[in-house]
Structures are given as C-alpha cells and as structure tokens.
Amino acid sequence: MRNRRLSRLLISFLLVLGGCDSGGSTSSQDTLEPPEVDATNTDTVSDVVVGESPFGEEVVGVKLELTAEAWAAILAAPLDETFQQGAIEYDGVRVENVGIRVKGNSSLKSVADSGSTRFSFKVDMNEYVSGQKLLGVKKLNFNNSFKDPTFLREVLGYEVATWLGLPAPRTTFADLTVAGTHLGLFVVVEQVDSEFIERTFQDTTGDLYKPEPPAGGLAYTGDDALTYTGLELKTNETTSDHSAFMALLKALDSQDAAMIEASLDVDRAISYLAMNAVLTNLDSYNGPGHNYYLYEEGGRFTVIPWDMNEAFGAFNCGCDRTGLVEYPIDEPSCGRLSERPLLGAILDNAEWRAAYHERMRAVLDGPLAEPGWSARIAELADRIRPTVQADPTKFYSETLFEQALTQDVTLTGPMAAISLGLGAFAAERGASVRAQLAGTTPSTAATDGACPSNSPNPCGDGVCDAFETANPQACPRDCGG
C-alpha cells in the first residue's frame, strides 16, 4: 500500500512539473491491465490528482481502461450495473483502481437490446480506494445522449438551472474510449454527492435523498419513513432518523405555507418547477416523480435537478407534438395533480403561483430569448461538431444532428420518436407559455392533470399504452405497478 501511495505522489509531482496534457488521445488501443489493488483496504487516502476541474470549455479526451475479462463481464450482463475495476485517463490525468460500470434506466435496456456498446457509464474513483479523487471529484457520469441527436439537451438544461440559481451539476463533453474501443462523443456530468454538496451548500452535514417512485411523488402516506418505497438516502445512511423528510411530507400534505417554508427552500422549488414547465422537462418530479435530489440544510430541503437529457420535450408522457408545445403551465404533471403535492402547494398559494409565473417569464426573457438562444446552440454545436463527425457509435447521423439543432427530426429504430428541434421548440414553447401567462390560451388541461385532450391514452386513463409499457415508471397505476 505504501509503495502505491509513493507511486501516485511521484506521478502527481511529475504532472505539476510538466503540466497536464491538454489533448488526451482517443484513438483505439490495446485493452490495458489495471494494476492490482487490495479491494478490502479501508484506509483513507488523500489522493486528489493535480488539476482544478474536469469541467472545461473544450471536448476532452477520456479513456476508461478495463481488462478484457472486466469488459466482457460488463457486456455479458449490462443490466446488473456491476462495477468493474479499471483506470481512467482524463485529458492526460490518470487515476488507477477506479470502479467502472454502465448506468441508465430505459436507455440502458434499449442499448442492451440493440446490441450496441454505447452505454452510459459511471466512474467511481472511490470504489476501491477510499478518498481517491480525480480533479477534485469522486464520481463522473458519461452519458450517451440517448434520444438526443443534438447531444445538447442535458448541457442546455443544466445551464438554465444554473442561470435560475439552482444548485446544478457541472457538465462538459468527452471523446470517450472504453477498453480500447473508441465510442465517441459523450456528455460528462458531475455526480450529486458529498463533493457536490461541499461546493454548493454551506452546511455539509445534512441528509441527501434521491427519491424514486412512488416516494418521489412526495405524498404523505404515514409516519414511518421505512415504508416509503423508493426513498434513497445518499448521506447519513446509518444515522438519519428521516425526521426532516417526514416533516416536509407532512407540510406538503397540510398545504400550510408556514409549515412548508420551514421545511423547504420555496424560492428554489419555484425555480425548479418553473424550469420544468418551460422546458417541458417531464422526466422529472412533474412526470414519474424522479430525477431530482433533495438536500436538507438546517431542516429545510432544496431541490436539485438531475438527469435532464430528455428536457425540451424528449420525454413525452404520451403527448403528441402539439401537446408538448402547449403543455399546461398550471397543471404540468403527467398524472393527477393531486399526486404531486409539491406542485399543488405552489400552484394553490397565490403568492407562490405569481412567483412561479414570473420565473417562467424570466426564463423566456433570459436564456431562451433570441438571438442569445440560437447563438448558444450554435456555439456548442461548433464545439462538438468535429467529434460528432468522427463518432463511430453515435445513435443518429450527422444530418440528423445538424437538422435537430433547429427543426424536428424523426428518430427510427429502438428509440423511435419525434425529436423536437431545439430552436423550433424554444420559439413555439415560448409563444405558448406567454399566451398561457396572458390568459389567451388555457393553462390547465382539464384532463385530470394528464396530457392535453389531443393526446391519446394519457396517464390515469387505465390503459397501459406503448409509451407507458416502454417507460414503466411513467405511469405505474395504468400498468398495474
């Protein structure tokens, strides 16, 4: 163990002297054997590799190195999402003895069924060596842009979240090689974990939750937190009594403003819900009731957005194109609004509802306003275009990439769908939201919180349609969940 530590210190010292290579190669290479590590070791090490941040302005070269056996094990059972030991080289900075696994929900199954190796990946520097970090972070996610021919939805979504003052993950782009196979362009996303909390909050001792359905709906169903299926605690796992979380559920159930303000950062919750509404970000609290975190600081929870790769209408909740563009801002849930008490609390309070409306106007007049919105899309597209062109495993053609920046495109194969063009969506959705805010078009669906009436088989109609079958968390009650 001591020799390994000395080796790492020597490598870091040489990197300081020589500077990090800014152009990590991404060409295919022989599968490498990572050095052995004592996986039973529990010693804490200070293994922060030299460098400031992995989230720069350029596409970075990244290699995930695995033995042939480890890569074969991943490919043999991807749905198990089991970590394998390997190494990462990130823009010339190398860390050994890391955990590498595939990740995803419906996207993971779709990729596995298609026979592709273009999985999304999670890398955990801390899996085998406690305290080990890469450029100050313990975990990184490499997302494959499933259902997004632009590669930009997730990055743009988090940019809007950050503009609104929400604590949001940082992102960048990587040209990724895994086990010697060049996979191409991936979106790199910061993990919401203890390092993220240290960066974004004053108090780092609170409870961090990643709710999943049904607990993710935040409906109060009793006093015992252990009975809430899908309640994932990411910090204080052995010490928390869940009292703060239960206080939040009771406050939302009561709809009492004072109780809610004592348990929730209402201003940031308003920003989160306004963002979801404007961006039609339905694979979220508004839809299945997931893809967000809750962090407790001094008894009050803050909402943290997560997994925004299907923002801008890519997750449709069974809606057609018109339904997505005209999605009702005052009933923005895939199912009954009564099943989303956080939404109900904001919309039923006149002051908070007004703030929610103003926050939507701010997004339309800010990041989505022209010519800035189109300029930002063009800037990011120019940055990634050479890597897109050289990407050997991308789900969609270069033609679809270029078209989808501004106009709708039809996706075929296992991910068949209409992908709304980023430019067209912002213009049309913006016009619809402004009309709803002005009262010239309806801002509620009048369909029990489901999709507008022009969309067939919405959540809550008792029909387990094709969309709900493919996305089992979208509407469990229609599919017997």
Describe this protein's structure.
The chain is of the alpha+beta class and 481 residues long. It has 2 domains: 2-144, no CATH class; 203-368 and 425-470, no CATH class. Helix content is 34%, strand content 17%. The protein contains 15 helices and 15 strands. The protein has helices spanning 2-18, 68-76, 106-114, 153-163, 194-200, 243-254, 257-263, 266-278, 321-325, 341-348, 350-365, 372-390, 398-404, 422-438, 466-470, and strands at residues 47-48, 60-66, 84-90, 93-103, 120-124, 132-133, 139-143, 171-178, 181-190, 208-211, 231-233, 292-297, 300-305, 409-411, 417-419. The protein has a 7-stranded mixed barrel. A hairpin with a 2-residue loop joins strand 12 (292-297) and strand 13. Helix 8 packs across helix 11 (350-365), helix 10 crosses helix 11 and helix 11 (350-365) packs antiparallel against helix 14 (422-438). The longest helix is centred in the C-terminal third of the chain and has 19 residues, at 372-390. The protein is globular. The model is unreliable at 1-48 and 452-457 (pLDDT under 50).
Secondary structure elements and pairings:
Layout: H1 2-18, E1 47-48, E2 60-66, H2 68-76, E3 84-90, E4 93-103, H3 106-114, E5 120-124, E6 132-133, E7 139-143, H4 153-163, E8 171-178, E9 181-190, H5 194-200, E10 208-211, E11 231-233, H6 243-254, H7 257-263, H8 266-278, E12 292-297, E13 300-305, H9 321-325, H10 341-348, H11 350-365, H12 372-390, H13 398-404, E14 409-411, E15 417-419, H14 422-438, H15 466-470
Helix pairs in contact: 6-7, 8-11, 10-11, 11-14
Structure, briefly:
The chain is an alpha+beta fold.
